[in-house]
Structures are given as structure tokens and as C-alpha cells.
Amino acid sequence: MYLQRRTFLATAGSAIAAVAVERFGGRLLAADQLAVTKRIATTTDPPSPYNAVTTFNNFYEFGSDKGDPAKHAKGFKPRPWSVAVEGACGKPGLYTLEDIFKPHPLEERVYRHRCVEGWSIVVPWVGFSLGELLKRFEPASNARFVEFVTVKRPEEMPAQRARFMSLLPWPYREGLRMDEALHPLTLMAVGLYGEELPNQNGAPLRLVVPWKYGFKSIKSIVAIRFVEKQPVTTWMRQAPEYYGFYSNVNPGPTYSTFRDQASERRLGEFFMRKTLPFNGYADQVASLYTGMDLRQQY
Ligand code: MTE
User: Fold this and answer.
1) Suppose 36 and one of 17, 56, 63, 185 were both cysteines; which one would form an S-S bond, judging by CB atoms 3.0 to 4.6 Å apart?
2) Mean pLDDT along residues 181-208
3) From the CA of 219, how far away is ligand 1's center (Å)?
4) What is residue 135's three-state secondary structure?
5) How far apart (Å, rounded) are the C-alpha atoms in residues 100 and 223?
6) Which residue has the CA at smallest separation from atom 14 of ligand 1?
């Protein structure tokens, strides 16, 4: 019901989504398009082909090759789903997927996405502002950070079954400072290209933080925690010399041991592009970091 399936032609908003889908990916309209009420393009770059966005993925729970998530996530069950809201807030509890998104009109947001591995894509996400969702849970004044946790289901996620040499410590965890989480660009996504999120892209609910490296955009979220201390994220735990808590896209020098981040390859393009500070969103977000040394705080 939340998808308002088959009603898309009846609403003006959906007509916008339908046009967008036709124009973007050359995709035929599916019968179950998400009803989108608003469309925001933060870039004039054309969206990446649907096939690139849905078959070249990082979702280590399904394997580390780029094609693994699309191949191995077919049996993953994104319904029924619930999210545990915990920690320093007025309304903790276990919320169903529907409780989570029903009050929020869905928007299409076209964002650039830059992976720390040096590739990038442009994605027409469908979702709503994370900040609007978090405010419903009434964060307490000592909630300075928000932690997010991905589902742990070894029976459906093959890489979580590895007995030794696990790729990563599971479950996958990420975090944001409260002002980053409340920033209007930060998106809770439920779809892309006008349709529900494919499993390999983080169904049924994933974060999208477009000015940070892609690994901050945690997939298939089952817990949201309001905490006082900066959480330890999966990649910080794995290799702190490479991955910091902030992980803002930064083509300049940092103390991170990671190789040069000055350029990137947009999937489907031949020539490299210059990587932009904050992935091109500096006007909107640089002020969040006034007074911080972003070489140290990478
Ligand atoms: N979330 C989980 N749970 N597991 C992961 O391995 N990979 C991250 C991020 N979220 C990852 C994750 C990385 S490295 C990137 S670049 C993006 O998801 C990739 O998102 P996409 O496959 O939708 O492009």
C-alpha cells in the first residue's frame, strides 16, 4: 500500500516520476512506480545507466566482487521489516517499515555518489529527509551522534556465513554527527529510478549522504541509535589509518593512508573527472565543519 501501486498515473507527482524515469534510463514504465511528490536535482550531470547502478555494487554482506550483490541478493527478504529506535530519545521502540516512512511524502533526489575506491555514479534516489524522521523520535539534548546498523542474517547474506577470514565484522555499522544527520541533504532512501530499492542497493531502507564517501551510506538499516559518544563504524574498526569517522569527500591532502582521491571515474565514462570537495556539495555543507582540521579529521 505504501507504494500506492498502480495509482501513479492518477497523481501529478507520479507523472513527474514517470517522465523522469523515461528520460533518465530509457527505462520502460513499470506498473509499480513509487508515488513521488517532488523532484530535486542537485546536479546537471545525467543519471548513470540503471544497469550500472544496480549491477556494480558494494554490499559486502553478499560478497566483495562488484557483481556479487546483484547475483546473491535475490533471495534476500526486505519484507516484513522493522527498525529498532534506541538510546537518547523520547520515543524509542520497534517501528515497522510502514511506521517509518508513511508520514513522509516521497521525493526524488538526483545525487552524485562518490566511492572511496575512485568511481562515481549519479543516482535518482527516492526517499525523504532523514532529519524529518529523526525529529519524530524526539532526540534528547545529549544525543550528539546517530548510529545506524545493517541487518545481520547469515542465512540470507552469504558473506556473513564465512567461518574464518570474514570480510568485515558484522553487522555493518555507520554513524553521523547529529547536525549531519539533520542536514536537509541527508536522505533516507526507499527507492531509485522511481521504483523500490533493489535488494543489492540496500532494500528496503538505506542512508544516502552525498557529500561523504559511499561507505557512509549504510544499507538495509535495522537499528537507529541516538548516542552521546562518536560511534565506531565498521570501516574505522577495520582500518582506522584509511577510514575516518567523517569521510567527507576530500580531493586535498589528508592524513588518511588512502591513495590519492583527486580524481574519479564516472561509471560509463572514459576520461577521469576531477573530484570536488564535499563531492560538489561544499556550498551546502562546508559550514558544518568550520574550525575543524579536515586533514586530521578525515
Ligand atoms: N552498507 C552495507 N551494509 N554493506 C556494505 O558493504 N557498502 C558501502 C555502502 N553501504 C556497504 C554499505 C559502499 S563502500 C558503497 S560505495 C555504497 O554502499 C554502494 O552503494 P550502491 O551499491 O547502491 O552504489
Assistant:
1) 17
2) 98
3) 6
4) helix
5) 12
6) 215
